[in-house]
Fold these 2 entries.
Entry 1:
Amino acid sequence: MKLFWLEIYKTFSRWRTYIGFGFIALIVILTEVVMKLSAGEIVNRMMRSPQKDFLIFGNVLNGWFVTAFIMNSLHFHIPFLIALVAGDMVSGEATSGTVRFLLIRPPSRYRIITAKYVATLFYTTGLVIFLGVVCILPGLALFGSGDLIAHHYGKFGIVFIPEAEIPIRMLFAFLAAIWSMTTVASIAFLLSTLVENSIGPIIGTMAVVVVFLVIGNFPFDFFWSLKPYLFTTYMVFWQRFLDDPIPWQEIVRSATILGLHSFGLFFIAFGAYARKDIKS
Amino acid sequence: MKGSSRKEVVLKTNGLSKRFAKRWAVKDLNLEVHRGDVFGFLGPNGAGKSTTIRMILTLLRPTAGSIEIFGKDLHNKRRSVLSRVCGIVEKPDFYLYLSAFKNLDILGSMTRSIRTDEIMEALDAVGLKSRAFEKVKTFSHGMKQRLGIAQALLTKPELIVLDEPTSGLDPQGMKEVRELIKKLSMENEMTIFLSSHLLSEVELVATRMAVINHGELMVQGDVSELLERETTEYSIQASPLDAAIKLIGDLPWAEVVSTENGKIEVHVSPGHSSELNRLLVTHDIDISSFYPHRTLEDFFLKVTEGTSEI
């Protein structure tokens, strides 16, 4: 536990750690303000199609809608912010030379690497929670509350979620987002244990995420057949909590696959680092 | 081995070897460091000193052989052994964005609970108490080197392993570090294992030493004995000079090589330097200086005599 808190102290003493929080605060608040200023136009565009078939009234452009919109928009950016810290977690010690002090101490490499991984997950969790807080609180303050109109996942259509159900669904959605980002953090962490500079793991993680996303979205049969084997396919499973009915079976499957990825990646990092010769 | 053969063996390597790809960086190394030793580990650049130190401090895994510290196998008893050991490998690098105090707090508390007064005491010992709360990024190389020694002292280890501790320091800094090493050994009874490529440095602080070259042990033993055994040339400033030259010329085990600027260059057979000094004094010859010509290069040439690679 002491090692974990030492890692947390070191992580949160660096300005790099706050880039993610600063970026999120800036982009989310900016988006919300712009959405507030263009509220009429947005509602018009949103409702153009549904209003042909439904009679819609009430506060459509509300804080929950804005939150879902921002989460959908940022699911590519957040992995980068996570990789920025996770990719530096182990390799940063090699770059700075502090690894030589760290690994000659009594705690085993297993304990040190585990403490670093848990600290990485702590940061990941903190960043996603921060995203949630920054989206929801100013969102509700600026746009108020109401029912949520969401896109029906994987289908043409929309879903109406009653206001009373939204907080708990949002909570689950953010927990799922944390779970997804844990896989991204695990990739960056693994790469961080293999090299001795931070740039490689950060770029490597983003390359993996981008390539997998691109492959998964190519409209060719061959790439479609690969899709079930790409972790990015399951990364947006948080969206399924805003579906109706909630597809629990698919959620559990996605969460299990992502969890196995995270565990596997950590296990490899654990083994690789324990046997690694420190030459830097 | 005189005087230290009865002492407890603190560090022992048995056939220690390390291979990188096809190259043996260290091969079949057998070292023995006794309690209270300041053990100089000498060798030219690339000889395998840092690789050996990295294996002793568990940064590298040996390809073959084993390391015993305090009589325990390092591989099997790593935690208990390393709680009594500390060191600096190559240059001391710290978390530059943290203060000296916080750096010591973090590194020290990985070994055991550290009190604030212990940190301040360690910083005081290396003259950094007044800079305790400044970020390390503002420190000079010499200050970082001293901070490195402070972190090594913090947990009051029984064995300190230092890799080129005076590397990159100015003469004043080198002197300070040497004095600190002597002080630690004498006052705190710590065993110190230090590597260097400077024979003069080792000679000034070490009690025992080993020489390594191309990853292999060349020689190991008491510094004074080894140097006495190998050194043959001395520079002597004496008065009256003529009397000194005559006296030396009559000795079967000494030979005057040259005289220049009031100094005599003398070849002395191994084991006779003290006798020569005593003879000069007893013949009423004043000696202003009497020092050996020793360079690591000369020393290597002598200890590796017969090997073609040096």
Entry 2:
Amino acid sequence: MRDHAVEKLFSLFASSERAEALAGDLAEEREQRGWIWFWVHVVRIAFALWRNAAIEAPLRILALATAGCAIFSASAFGGLAAVFLFPMVIDSPASWIALSLFWWSGALWTGASLVAIAPRRGMVACATLAATAQALLIGVGVMALRRDLFDGDFVLFHTTGLLAAAPLLAGGAIARRRMITWGLACVLLAIATPAAAQQGEWHDPSPHKATLVTVEDGVRLEVLDWGGSGPTLLLLAGLSDTAHVFDDVAPVLAKRYRVVGVTRRGHPGSSAPATGYGFARLAEDVVRVMDAAGLKNPIVVGHSFAGEEMHVLGARYSTRIAGLVYVDAAFDRADRFVEHEAAAKALPGPPSPKPADLASFTALRAFLTSTQGPPGPEGRLRARYVGNTDGSVRGRWTPEPHVLKAFSSEIQAAYKTYKPEPIRVPALAIYAAPKSADELMRPWYKTDDPVEIRERVERLFPLERENVARHAKWFAAFAERGRVAELSGGHDLFVTNSRDVLEQIDAFVSSLQEKP
Amino acid sequence: MSAPVNLGEFEQLILLAILRRRDDAYGVTIRAELADRAGRTVAPGALYTALERLETKGLIISRMSEPTPQRGGRAKRLVTVTAAGVKALTRSVRAYERLLDGLNLVRGAHA
């Protein structure tokens, strides 16, 4: 039986007579030399047969392999196109299984096609294509390993690709052995799986070029470049956000600015070293990115925690930047406004997602939208939450424990006696400030006792106003060339009130240009 | 007739081994002959490649034997040296002899 399989294997690359004689020779000697010798030489002979056949007509084989590559790519792109036709099913739990099936059936189909095109050399072309693809994939894998890109999704994607060699050869073998039933099944599978593969992987649609910039030995930051021309805007995200929080606003900004975003160390996409979370070091990271990307005199626009980095930039690197825009990011961190904190705590926090809401990113988005309002770009959602390989959501992203420890001890130490060096560049501090108590009514309050909730919100509103006024006053003293603006909306101003934020940025930039 | 075929050392050894085994030259016996007489261990794949090349050059010819019981009923590929093969081999051996003449290599003068 085993000898029979070996004979069939050889017959894929050589005439049946040659295959019979070679298998017979090996079987004859096996008694004397043992099984290990036998199998080693099965592999070596198969390799020699393939090599001889490839050398016999190299151009022909090359042409066939290229044709195979085209057939495979065509089916792969067809599948991707199908995915984009049905974006709502993208996050199905079966998505990666469907993707794998699609790849493999495409490979099967390609193998069968090559043998159909060239009965004698098709199989050799299949093996050549498989070997080349394997070599390339292994190369890509090694590169990814070196650049820290080897995460769970990559492993799955990569393994799927590596395993595609098997169905490619199987497809060729089936066609070569003229196994009609199997061939038919293979065709059906190839037709059926693109439908299943409508649930492919999610791809970031934002038109940015993503690179990794080394800012320190072994520390690389994700830098997103949206291109554009005009004054340069350097965008910094808040804590537990990445540069993808700007995926939607950046393309709009890129119509009149050169736009680049940075993901802070310790966050998804960038390295997570054990140290270097002091504000000075974080600011230096930003300067290193400016150096590497060749950004001259950028206007740094930062959200929330990015204010801490911007303070350092405005004080110590004032000659390197044109201005600072704080988007709900300039706070006197030492100011403990106890009444405000108490009033805010008296109101219920947003509800947590139920298991059904974590079935997919689509479900999670729907849940967040209905309870808290739209969560912003998909790339942001997928950075703030951790996905499973089956398309479901595991939960909120949290930094690695060693990062969390280092980061929080730096933050606590700095906030205790909060005395950032005064900044010396033009600056705009935008605050999210409600204009009425209605704006503080969150969608999830409705389920609770409405009268009681309303009373608490009415109590919070003046304190909220006062809180903003206190921080704005602090900022006016802190930034000699600073200006303050207030916008309605929540803390995530980029998401809730992006148009107003963009208007403020435009006004600020033109004010810089008026006064050179 | 086309230009005379030049043989590599490995090809010469294989042709000689085939000639020695006469009617029973196939993969296993050729490799055994090379191991016993020339002390050369040859992998089955390497021998196969060489035999293909010799047959393409017309120096050997092969035919399938009757099915044999000891190899699961599989036939052997029996090879025979053709007239052209013998001629090429003779040419090589003569060239050797002429070059060796007067050197006394075998008896050890240059060993």
